[in-house]
Structure formats: C-alpha cells, structure tokens
Amino acid sequence: MWGGRFAAGPSAIMREINASIPFDKALWRQDIAASKAHVGMLAAQGIVTSEDAELIAGGLDRVAAEYEADGVPENWDLEDIHMTTESRLAELIGPVAGRLHTARSRNDQVATDFRLWVRDAIDQADAGLRQLQAALVERAGDHADSIMPGFTHLQTAQPVTLGHHLMAYYEMAARDRSRLADARKRMNRSPLGAAALAGTGFPIDRFRTAEALGFDGPTDNSLDSVSDRDFALDYLMAAAQCSLHLSRLAEEFIIWASQPFGFVTLPDSLSTGSSIMPQKKNPDAAELVRGHAGRIVGCLTSLMITMKGLPLAYSKDMQDDKPPVFEAAGLLALSIAAMTGMVAEAKFRTDRMRAAAELGYATATDLADWLVRQANIPFREAHHITGSAVKLAESRGVALDQLPLADLRAIDPRIDERVFAALSVEASVAARASHGGTAPAEVRKRVAEARAALGLED
Ligand code: ARG
Q1: Which end of the chain is more exposed for a tag (fewer CB within 10 A), N or C?
Q2: Which residue CA neighbors atom 4 of ligand 1 most closely?
Q3: Distance of CA 103 to CAs 28, 29, 130, 318, Å?
C-alpha cells in the first residue's frame, strides 16, 4: 500500500514489530462502518461518483460478511485492519477500491475506529453495571432489616443492616456509571477528516460523517484529532475506578465466606473445589475479580506511559494504545458479570451476621449517645463512662446489656433502666435514621429511590 518510494521490502523483524492486525482486527466492525460513512460523504460531496461509492459500499458489505463468517485474516504484510480491509476490497471490486482512501489517512481512520470501539465498550460496561445495581437493590430490599456488624479497621464498630451494606456498592456503581457517561459525552466527537494531521484539500463534510457515525459533531483541531487518546484514558480511568469497587466487593465476599465469618455461602456456580482437600469450596471468582483490578489498573498505567511525552501529531507508539484497552474491557466485563452473579445468588447467613453483631460491644456508642441525650452529659465524658462499662462487661465476658443495672449505676449513677432499650442491636440501627443512615426505614427509602432510578417494577 505504501511501497512506491522503497527499493527493498521490510525485514521479518520489521514486519513483525509493525503488525497490529493480530489485535486491531477487533476493530473491523468500526472500520467498515467508518469507511461506509466516509465513502457516502465523498459521493455526496462529488469527490467520488455515486456509482463508485455504491460499488465500494457494496464491496465493504461483502468484506464484512466474510469477516463475520470466517473471521479476519491475519497477514502481517497488510499490517493492520485498515489495510487488510482495503486490500480485500480491492480483490473483490478492483482498482475502484483505491478511491476509498481519498481525503483520509489511517491516522484519522484509526482514531475514529478506536473511538467507536471505546464508545461501545462504555455502553456495554454501563449495561453490565446497571444489572449489578439491580441485583444489589433486590438483595438490599430483602435485607433492609437484617442486622450485621459494621466494621471500621475490620473491627466491630456499630451494627448496620446488610441492606445498607449492599446499597453502599449500589452508590459506587452509580458513580462508576456517571464516570463512564462523562467519558462518553466528552469523547463523542469525530476525528474523521483530520486526515494525516493537517486536514485535507478535498471539499469534505466532516459534520456529515460525524452524524452518520452517531458523533455529536467533528473535532476542532486536526493535529489534536489524530493524536488524542484522552478518550481511551478517560475510559480506562473509569474502568480502573470501577474495578477497584468490584475488587472491594469481591473482598467482602471472600472474607464473609471464610469459616470464622460464615456470613455467606457462595453460589456453587461461582466457586471451585480443591484437587486435594475434598471439603474446600474456594471463592476463586471473587479472588480473580480482585486480581483483575490490578491488571486493569496496569492497563491504565500502560497507556498513560505510552502517551507521555509524545510530540504532535501521530507516532507509531500510539498503535500500542489498543491492547491495554481491549484487555481492560474484557476483564471489566467479566468482573462485572461475576460480581452480579455473586450478589444475586449468594446465600446470606443472616443468623450468623446477627449473632456477630452482638459481639464486640457494637452498641457502645449507643450507650454514650444515651448518656448525652438522657442525662445531658457531654459526649467526651459519656465516651469515658461507656469505656468503663465496656471494660467491666469484658472482664465478666458478657454483653453490655447483660450488665446488671446496679453495676452500671456504680459506674455512673445517672444511668437508669431505660438504657437497656437503647442497647439492643435493633434499637441501635433503628436510631440511625439520619439521611443516608443504616436505619431500616432509611435503607428502604433509598432502595425505593434506586428502584425508581433503575426503572425496576415493584
Ligand atoms: N495500525 C496503526 C495504528 O493502530 C494505524 C495508523 C497507522 N498510521 C501510520 N501513519 N503509520 O496506530
């Protein structure tokens, strides 16, 4: 395609290092769509005849049908998906195929194809996250009253409800979707027509191709158009952030499924056994989600470092933009699907959660709050009094609400029998009805809002 000025062909090494077809064949649908939009515009502008344009468009459809049926052939001599498609087109329709590349370059072509691909990846991730949210909301609604220990430092802190805990991940997924939506909105401009770097002398209509490909309009600087990969980085940043959330959720399931916790029985369908220990049921899917987050962050880092320090406009380094994006998108889709299945199918052992919430003096703050409210004691002093009560209960190996009133009154005479009502885990969660708090009523309210936002049936 470019051999005119060369006396010798490329070495084997050159062919191998240059070839992107092994991975960029994933762009074939986008490449065909962009070429069809381009040739339609060339005809509308009178740059090619409508007969030639029709021949080319029909030929592109035939190439697409071949790819669909047999896959994209990998010939390193043809370097990439763009030349592979154009060369097959020429085999099918003859020299008129050569008119397709009028007023464009592979530089704006790849920038366009890749944007279209990333846009699809964003839409897929968004759809997957919506399903994850729906699963979270379903389970949270069922467990708005199920009490479990809430942790800080992974130490029992205060009782919360399982519904509240699950809804925390709903909020994270909502922000992930909003980050993806931001990325989509920002990237949705067409670089097609920027040509090699400087634009073109042909009277093209970039608004027309932009519209045909579902972009909001053309980009505004040709140099930037062919060398901008911010859109891929925006996507990877959103994907990396999302993968961190999925990894944290995976980690919760891993901890909860461990025997000492026993808060959850993982679905068989998302667990594996051990080849030596017959009793084992391992949380491999969750562990791989946790592991994949590391790889996705690595993909982000990889492209950031590729782009760092590149002068305008296109450099071949940028061909390396695709593998990390493809890899991250695949890993993210799998991770979202695995965690959706986990949330939907896990068996929560609410009896174990409830029992664990009774341990660790989870309602100590409620005693301190009670002293503040009922006895008008400053919180710092109430905190100290409560600490003494916890110490006493601990020395006797009992829960706070099992201490006799006389012993509590010995610590502070302002305590009376009403305090016991505040010390149950039910009272503790019910009391936390501040906006966004763990009170079952508050959780149910947020679940209802979430269901409405997701358009779920009642
Ligand atoms: N395969 C190339 C890539 O993915 C296409 C653009 C090549 N442009 C060039 N001037 N060599 O980046």
Answers
A1: C
A2: 319
A3: 20, 21, 41, 21
